[in-house]
Amino acid sequence: MSQNRNPVHEVFPYLRVKGAEAAIRFYTTVFGAVEKFRLAEPGGRIGHVELDLGNIVLMLSDEFPEYDCLAPQSPGAAGLFIHLHCDNCDEMAARAIAAGAVVVREPSDSFYGERSCTIRDPFGHEWMLGHRIEKVEPAEMQRRYTALFE
Questions:
Q1: Number of domain units in the chain
Q2: What is the model's pTM?
Q3: Lesser CB count within 10 Å: N end or C end of the chain?
Q4: CATH code at 88?
Q5: Which domain holds residue 43?
Q6: Secondary structure (H, E, C), the chain
Q7: 138 assigned to some structural domain
Q8: Residue 132 belongs to some domain of the structure
Q9: What b/e readout covers 42-61, taking b as 16+ CB neighbours within 10 angstroms?
């Protein structure tokens, strides 16, 4: 276990929406959010967007029903999860499981330079846990993301 008393470095609200493009327009127009970058599939579906909003970064994506990533309009979906940047996602996931959480997605290394996993806590909330394994610039992330669909 990490020697750090608080192994979480950053917390990000992450929204799953139907119509991410429209949501981005809404959040930028209404709340003054500023888009930092986005990852989009060749067909246009948005896999990830980061918006500066006040003193937080709001993350969002289109829904991905094939991965059970559903927007709140879909039956049984919450549409929100919390992404924690931590010291070690494997250790944090093991602690969560020992405390009653279930694994939604096993820890794995991702194209965007993070080792991450998703757990569901005993109260039904999903948490994405991740730690950096490589610094990847947005243009390189997009190149890697696009390559997944080739």
A1: 1
A2: 0.72
A3: C
A4: 3.10.180.10
A5: 8-147
A6: CCCCCCCEEEEEEEEEECCHHHHHHHHHHHHCCEEEEEEECCCCCEEEEEEEECCEEEEEEECEHHHCECCCCCCCCCCEEEEEEECCHHHHHHHHHHCCCEEEEEEEECCCCEEEEEEECCCCCEEEEEEECCCCCHHHHHHHHHHCCC
A7: yes
A8: yes
A9: eeeebbbbbbeeeeebbbbb
